[in-house]
Design brief:
Blueprint: E1 7-11, E2 14-18, H1 23-53
Antiparallel strand pairs: 1-2
Length: 55
């Protein structure tokens, strides 16, 4: 039994449909997209604390 998965991504500024994206890879990208802003926020907070405390 085959599973087909479609995902929309941007290429050259245009939306493209990918037919070969494995579902696990697409799920991984969704997780990364949600985590990246949190990681940059944590880094900003860490830098602010370091500057405040004089480290």
């Amino acid at each position: 039994m085959a599973q087909y998965f479609f995902d929309i991504h941007k290429s050259d500024g245009k939306d493209r449909i990918s037919f070969t994206h494995p579902i696990s890879l697409s799920t991984f990208f969704q997780i990364i997209k949600t985590k990246i802003p949190l990681l940059s926020l944590e880094k900003d907070i860490s830098n602010t604390l370091d500057n405040f405390l004089g480290f």
